Amino acid sequence: MTPVLIAxxxxxxxxxxxxxxxxxxxxxxxxLPGVQVEEAFVDVQEPExxxxxxGVPAGAASVVVPLLLSTGFHTRVDIARAVAAAPGPCVATPxxxxxxxxxxxxxxxxxxxxxxxxxxxxxxxxxxxxxxGSSDPAAEVDVAAMADLLAARLGMPVxxxxxxxxGIRIDAAVAAARSAGATRVFAxxxxxxxxxxxGVIAGAGADVVTDPLAPDEAVAAVVVERYRASLR
Length: 232
Prior knowledge:
By secondary structure, this protein is an alpha/beta fold. Helix content is 42%, strand content 18%.
């Protein structure tokens, strides 16, 4: 029997954010016909990840794919706990990022927003990868790796800012870019959906802020890739 795919996101009180995540899950179902795809959450929304994993029929295999962009408390604790208590074979895949498909999406969003304008003098534009943040140092490592992938795509430096947790705050990263000579600062929203952290990014003072990543096709493609890789 094909393992159940459990798409586990953080959860949000934002209706727009909920719709964005649901859109990703719907697209995953379309891309994996014949695979049972269940939605689960670690906070705010239900059903909770523990209940969804526990509800998989005894003996049936399942794969939890975190709809989270970085390693952190929710992957190491919440999802790991649910997997350990599963009634049948169950594994969790890595978080969605860092991933080159997401770097491509971010680069596409930035260029569509005007990055790389022909009349921009050298050093006039700067990019801050704006992430939610975490108390887990592994998340900061993942975001730094994502910034490197994006910088390679853009052919220019990319700094990092966080809405919470460890690391420099987004508004401070924006201010630092201006102090270094940038006259137009782009905040690349490295969050999946509208909600609290997207609001923090929007209010951090960048000249241009891109939209959250979901429900873009690239996000669903990474979920499918993570699932398939777990079956090898």
